[in-house]
Amino acid sequence: MSDAATYPTGLLSFTYHVANTESVKAQAQSDLDGVMTDFALTPTQQELITKISNETGLTDSLWEQYAEELRTEVDHDIKTVW
Question: Taking residues 33-44, what's their average pLDDT?
Answer without folding.
Answer: 97
